[in-house]
Amino acid sequence: MKSxxxxxxxxxxxxxxxxxxxxxxxxxVIHIQAENGPHLLVEAEQAKVFxxxxxxxxxxxxxxxxxxxxxxxxxxxxxxxxxxxxxxLKEVDVFVSMGYHKKAYGGYQGRVFLKGGSDNDASLVITxxxxxxxxxxxxxxIEGLEDDTAVVSLDLQGVVFPYFPRLGRYNLNFHEAQxxxxxxxxxxxxxxxxxxxxxxxxxWCNAGWLSDGSVQYPITKPREPCGGxxxxxxxxxxxxxxxxxxxxxxxxxx
Length: 254
Hints:
Immunoglobulin-like, Mannose-Binding Protein A, Chain A, elongated, six-stranded mixed β-sheet, disordered N terminus, 3 helices, glycoprotein, 254 residues
């Protein structure tokens, strides 16, 4: 019995004092360092640039890389320019560049190229500007898994004017309104163009189509039949095929 008790005490002491070979270091701390911030940054020095029809313009865009980031400099830089549609639902390819490979798309062929003022310059030059070139452009720079974008607006100098057919003020669906402006050597005005015209004093108490598919009209002389407020009145996004209105056109200066 004494031998059994002695054996139990020895086992307890052994459990309370394990050997150094089995000691776990519970004080060890594992540091996990998070990598904060982007390794690729794209910026546009100007959010909006101005030009005129037939002229040339540079859409500014530069990119900055973190030289200490893992993999930086090991991938080819891909630069892609697209144009945002007026409703911002789609992007139209304009120009792509990666190394010696460059490609322009659609009506931009032969009219666009990268400025290339420095190694980090992704600015796009557009020549022989047309009415259709007006709008917002996106500059996207891609390096491996990193990418970033910047948006630049191209504004053409010109005039906004309301157009209504002889049959009456509300006789055009959206597609007919587009053609009506083209027949006037113009395009459907954007909201920004109508807004600028309103700020310049345009007052017209008739609703008309805009390029984003909305129907609006500018009021600078408040009166009850026109809403009674000094503002650009919003009439909604009607059915483009069946609803009939006038249209606001934009004609650029040469």
